[in-house]
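Submission sheet (multi-component)
Chains listed below:
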Amino acid sequence: DQQVKQNSPSLSVQEGRISILNCDYTNSMFDYFLWYKKYPAEGPTFLISISSIKDKNEDGRFTVFLNKSAKHLSLHIVPSQPGDSAVYFCAAKTSNFGNEKLTFGTGTRLTIIP
Amino acid sequence: DTGVSQNPRHKITKRGQNVTFRCDPISEHNRLYWYRQTLGQGPEFLTYFQNEAQLEKSRLLSDRFSAERPKGSFSTLEIQRTEQGDSAMYLCASSLGVDEQYFGPGTRLTVT
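Outcome: structure written.
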């Protein structure tokens, strides 16, 4: 049972344009969402997060949008740069004390075309 | 660099052998997590510790797997009688309380 889904295995975007990565979840108990970026032979690197009390969080070129009614979140990267080429994972958790495990999606490979 | 470190980075073992991996978290982080990642999948939660106490274990963690964090600092993950299905990347992460989890580079296990 895949509770966090990233339906696009790959995405190619021209340098300088906007990259939009999507994520859907099914578990309504999830109330905190994160995006991680992973380069080959490295562990995932935390990028940005959002609590379910918000619908948008921005950090520099990265913005995460949350639509709770649709159980959908997206990561926008603008402008896209060659160094953004990586695999992006969406993750979710509930914030109940004692339950800190992250549930990850299967990832989207983003390729930025120079 | 004071990030999360994992050793070894790669391990090749024969089926039936025991293996042990080590994770050193970021020094002030009190929580430590183990995940497993197979090809084409995202990381899957295995277990986590708050200080030296193991607070949650996934059903993925069969009785051949054991994890310890004896003094609330580094952690070890042991797999006994390895099987080919255990081949995966084993990732360790740490956090300060409920803050974001920071991952190490992983240990890639290949069981032949």
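Remark: Chain B has a mean pLDDT of 93.
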